Amino acid sequence: PATDEIAAIAVAKQGNAVAVVLTAGNHGDVRLLDATTLKPKAAVSLPLGSGAGGAFSEDGKRFTLAWSTPSTPGDIYAVQVATGKLAALDRGGKASQEGLSAASVAIAQP
Q: What is the pLDDT of residues 27-43, one digit of tens each?
């Protein structure tokens, strides 16, 4: 969209990948691109929320990402560059929202 802004860019030392973290108006997005062609490598399926990009692993196969949503506390994830799949790195010691009502989240377009 026209309101996208680049919040962060990371380039893998190996693996020919670029990660671009976008602020897309009222939410965030992450794109994994081929470093040579800038074409998408894999779609990253993130819940509606926002976050910040980290760095690639030494082999370029994973990218770290901090992400939070209105209904979940922030967490650190590893994104598999080949597939775009997320894996939480550590949930230990996090404050729990157990027992709280779930937030209803949507983007309203004018």
A: 888 999 999 999 999 99
